[in-house]
Design a protein that fits this description.
Strand order of the largest sheet: 1-11-10-2-3-6-7
Structural class: mainly beta
Mean pLDDT: 90
CATH superfamily of the largest domain: Lamin Tail domain
Strand content: 35-45%
Low-confidence stretches: 1-17
Helix content: under 10%
């Protein structure tokens, strides 16, 4: 889209001291009849009675026609935007998804809002002109400020233009070649990432974008990195050819696994993650980023002609993130050099809405700190803080599996005498953990254990069927993996077989008991 720029000195502009309102945009969209005509004003300070203000159209350079439209007797607050239209239904349809940016929409039923794209517009306060767009004594046809089948929009104090006839034939602002600037673009930059991650290299580089509207074909859009202030490099990454809905979050990464590890549970905040295998996402923290549509720049972070080192927008080993007000915020240079996840970083990336676990207390059921009965077990409990943590699940582990094993329900099974450390680790990616020790006694072989002294597994390693030998009567057995997860259990008599063909190759523990004695044996499965 090509926009023409015109300084305010090139149009007649006078602002009275009492001005609480200013012209923001003049619309002559290429819709049917007068449906595309509107005037956009913005409120600078609270107005108790809008009817003190009005609008006039100076047609064809014939001089002022005075005030032709008067605002209704209503109030407005500072920062609010007002659109005066001829056809509210047509405008609502054209600005679908964006019409809500106007706090007030007033219909001019009298037809006073009649500009044809070559007409000046005056804003009045108590009958006096306080601002003029264009020149009331000049027909705007062929003038720099002409806006026929288009629009004029004030950026700060400078009027910009969509280009003559740029909306002709358009039915939607979002798909126009010259979308009205007050509306957000279908896609926008949200964050620029140059993290330090454990695997190093380019794995911490990413660009975060969001969609403001549904996009039928993402491949219209692309990214470019302007390295070291050397100017634009054009489109270096193109989004995949697919459709996405409005209001989704997209992350383009160099290394999805590294980013998944870094963000932990927060990685789910991104609706789509695309991997840039070609290496276009190559920013080093001092590089500007460009967002393109159909190879035309629609947004730039930083300055493509300036190396960002030492500038306010530098994000080396850090990030930049656009807040709700549209302002860029920064983590601070080198802030991700400490911490291996967004939870442990001193500058967590702001996208994450999860409440992270900050501490865990581990204890045995009813405060128990020991297992003193042979072959007994103890339920371990983990208290996760804060109480409103988004993900409160934990992973259980012990420091010595020869003394005890623990399953992921927190059940601790004694094996041998000693002191075992039991740890619960958060699963939200914060790596927060809590531990306690449990004393285990009376597990060594006694007289009752002699009944199982000769117990053996055959064959061991086993690939299909396992036979227990060297005991009388019936045994109960449980098979655990090295992390204490219960995989198999049942009863078996001497000489009977147990199927292990569904177990993966590896080492396991089989705990057996006859009611008065128990024994734990090491089992190896080797599928051939």
């Amino acid at each position: 889209m090509k926009k023409l720029l015109l300084s305010v000195a090139a149009v007649t502009l006078s602002l009275g001291a009492s001005a609480q309102m200013h012209l923001q945009g003049i619309l002559d969209l290429g819709l049917s009849g007068s449906s595309g005509k509107a005037v956009h004003v913005a409120v600078d300070s609270a107005i108790a009675d809008l009817s003190d203000f009005g609008i006039g159209i100076a047609n064809n350079g014939g001089g002022t026609d005075g005030q032709e439209y008067t605002f209704p007797a209503a109030s407005a607050q500072a920062g609010e935007h007002i659109l005066v239209v001829r056809d509210s239904a047509a405008m609502a349809a054209y600005f679908a998804g964006c019409f809500q940016i106007w706090d007030h929409v007033f219909i001019d039923a009298s037809g006073s809002i009649s500009q044809n794209g070559d007409d000046a517009v005056e804003l009045f306060y108590n009958g006096a002109v306080i601002e003029t767009f264009g020149d009331i004594d000049v027909d705007g046809s062929g003038q720099p400020w002409e806006y026929t089948d288009s629009w004029a929009y004030k950026m700060d104090t400078t009027w910009t233009y969509g280009g003559i006839a740029c909306t002709a034939g358009d039915s939607l602002n979002v798909s126009s070649s010259c979308p009205y600037p007050a509306c957000p673009a279908p896609m926008a930059l949200q964050g620029i990432l140059d993290f330090t991650v454990p695997v190093g290299g380019s794995s911490g580089k990413a660009v975060h974008v969001v969609t403001n509207y549904a996009i039928a074909d993402l491949s219209q859009y692309g990214l470019g990195v302007a390295n070291n202030g050397g100017g634009t490099d054009g489109v270096e990454y193109v989004f995949p050819a697919m459709g996405v809905p409005a209001n989704v979050s997209i992350l383009v990464v160099r290394d999805s696994l590294a980013m998944a590890d870094y963000f932990g549970a927060c990685f789910a905040e991104f609706d789509y993650v695309f991997v840039d295998a070609a290496g276009g996402i190559s920013q080093n923290g001092d590089d500007a980023i460009e967002l393109f549509k159909d190879s035309v720049n629609i947004e730039t972070f930083g300055d493509v002609d300036v190396d960002g080192s030492g500038l306010p927008w530098e994000y080396t080993d850090s990030w930049a993130f656009k807040d709700a007000a549209g302002m860029w915020t920064f983590g601070g240079v080198n802030c991700t050099d400490t911490g291996t996840t967004t939870f442990t970083s001193p500058c967590p990336y702001p996208v994450c809405t999860l409440v992270a676990v900050d501490s865990i207390t581990v204890a045995g059921a009813n405060g128990a700190t020991a297992i003193s009965v042979k072959g007994d077990s103890l339920q371990m409990n983990a208290m996760v803080y804060p109480s409103n943590a988004s993900i409160a699940t934990v992973l259980w582990s012990v420091d010595d599996t020869t003394l005890a094993v623990i399953n992921q329900d927190g059940m601790l099974y004694a094996r041998s005498n000693g002191t075992v450390t039991v740890t619960a680790t958060s699963t939200d990616g914060s790596a927060t953990a809590g531990s306690t020790t449990i004393d285990i006694t009376n597990q060594n072989i006694g007289l009752d254990d002699l009944a199982l002294e000769a117990l053996a597994l055959y064959p061991n390693p086993a690939s299909d069927q396992l036979t227990l030998r060297g005991f009388d009567g019936e045994l109960e057995f449980v098979v655990f993996d090295l992390q204490g997860k219960k995989l198999l259990s049942g009863q078996v008599q001497e000489g009977q077989t147990v199927s292990v063909k569904h177990l993966a190759n590896g080492t396991y523990f089989m705990h057996v008991s006859n009611g008065s004695a128990s024994k734990t044996l090491r089992l190896t499965v080797a599928q051939f």
